[in-house]
Amino acid sequence: MTGRIAELMRALGARIVNNWVWRLGVAIRFLWLTLRESGPSFRRFHLTIREIYFAGVLSLVVIMVSGLFVGMVLGLQGYDTLVRFGSSEVLGTLVALTLVRELGPVVAGLLFASRAGSAITAEIGLMKATEQLAAMEMMAVDPIARVVAPRFWAGVISMPVLAALFSAMGVFGGYLVGVRLIGVDEGSFWSQMQASVDFREDIVNGFIKSLVFGIAVTWIAVYEGYDAPPTAEGVSGATTRTVVTSSLAILALDVVLTALMFRGQ
Amino acid sequence: MATSNLVEVEDVTFSYDERQVLKNINLVVPKGRVVAIMGLSGCGKTTLLRLIGGALRPNHGEVRVAGRAINRLSDDELFALRRKMGMLFQFGALFTDMSSFDNVAFQMREHTNLPESLIRDLALMKLQAVGLRGAADLMPSELSGGMARRVALARSIALDPMLMMYDEPFTGLDPISLGVIGQLIRRLNDSLGATSIVVTHDVAEALELVDYVYYMSTGKVEFHGTPDQIRAAGLPSLRQFVYGEPDGPVPFHYPAPEYRQDLLAQ
Amino acid sequence: MMTRKELDLWVGIFAVIGIGAMLFLSLKVANLASFSSADTYPILAKFDNIGALKVRAPVKSAGVVVGRVSEIRFDNESFEAVVTLNVDGRYKFPKDSSAKILTSGLLGEQYIGLTPGGDSVNLKGGDTLKLTQSAVVLENLIGQFLYNKAAEGEGKK
Fold first, then answer.
1. Where in chain A are the domains?
2. Separation in Å, CA of B106 to nearest CA in chain A
3. pTM of the full predicted structure?
4. How many structural domains comprise chain C?
5. Residues A136-194 pLDDT 10s
6. How far apart are the CA of C5 and the nearest CA of chain A, in angstroms?
7. A197 neighbourhood in chain C, CB within 8 Å
8. Chain A: residue whose CA lies nearest to B87
9. pLDDT tens, C90-138?
10. End-to-end Cα spacing for chain C
């Protein structure tokens, strides 16, 4: 019996080490290579611009529409709750703080992972499966410098912009519902918001969050693509893993960052 | 004679993890010649090509290109050497996000500081050489298999390489495209003054166009000689390969217990 | 396939919208323009009890936000709470002004109310307010009320 348990423990340990610890090590080394080969992404910025188009511009619509909807829901739900305490005038505060501190970076990050992250993984994975990366290497061009790094930086640049857009659209959505539809006083909506949203504490911290999420999602996406087995199943599996892993990473990092940033306030 | 051989493979052994793929391979490719490496699928031909291109390093032995040991070069030196090599991949491996023209111009833009007008002339010249100048603005997805292979060929000769490598250039092509590619390999080799290595299992096509043949089987060079010598050779496994006989030294059946026993066993 | 010019245009639009969103968040949501943290001066105030006052609570005078609480700590010698108020540099207050901890609404957040005094000298950065009034703690209030009632009852007997 003890033998069986020991056997199970050993199998579990091997799984953890092989699937997580070992892969994490490879991924960190990959990130280091990417950073080291990042020169061309900035010297020839049009490479990165192209990828910003695919990662950022093409995510614009989904991010803006989602932000608007989330803000409207916050307006409705927030009003419903606040009115019971007779403090519907702090609706602006509620909407803005929720978005800027939490929902902006987190929901935009999740959408970004499934919209842009999966596309990056699939694209790099397919390039690998069709030997495009090998061909590039044979042409004495480093695929990490030419393919991976521009996508990585495009994601890192796009993500904070998208999160800010999400929050801004959300505040606007909350305004539409709260002020235009329900009739909360416009003046107190904005002034209450402005009185309690702090630039450094809330806006900057939200920005830092979105930047960290952007790094995490794009790192996972380029790594999974580059590491994908060069087959159809391999690429589709890697794409799924990108979405799952980066969503988990966003939520876990959010806990850590929130604990660090908003401690005791 | 190091001077007259562009590629020399000396006593090379290579294995992926446990599985030994190449055993004590010796092979030379003289300058200006078109040499075929033939053999069954999975006999290590492509691996050999990757060793010559420096994508893999041998466990034992030495690969020399233009007199320089590939496995002892630093990354930078290897990249410098690769600029003088061209490789045509099995399915072309065109960059799917670029037009034919940009594919051909890719290396010129990456490795030279030529003005865009000159790059345009050069790239169109390369496309003209493979007869596809008219397809310059098409995307790879709009090209047929044979056309894609020709664009890839134009791309691999973009910087006038001294060594051309072809990995299964004939796979999946219709007879016309196949003939076109075969002719191009020969013509480009002679007009560029390059040296070519063709890895293939398409015997009929290869024997027509190459100068010398290495026949490989299970990780070893079984036989080498001119096409005529190959045709005349009496080696049973080579005969089976050349004439495409289904059964012979390479059995039709994958090893299995006897059929009757398998049927009776419940 | 898009040309490089079109790509540049779209990415340019993306950047403009993004910067617009960030400006909107900074200026309209956080109201950075009207209250920049650069030109503020700190004033200290000691309280016996700060109740539920928090860092970043507003400092108001005549109902107008004139600053924010930047730090709260406990002075282990006088056993008092020391609150640092960052007051907007545009507003000057006489040296004998007083600070109260007030509550907005019955259950709202707590803030500091500054009542200007009559001195001709103004407060400078680092000064300490002499007159303060602590937070009203509801439990104490109720306790006192009950005690008084009880005392009244005793007296009647």
1. 43-260
2. 9
3. 0.80
4. 2
5. 988 888 899 999 999 999 999 999 999 999 999 999 999 999 988 988 888 888 888 88
6. 10
7. 29-31
8. A138
9. 888 888 888 888 887 666 678 888 888 888 888 888 888 877 888 777 7
10. 98
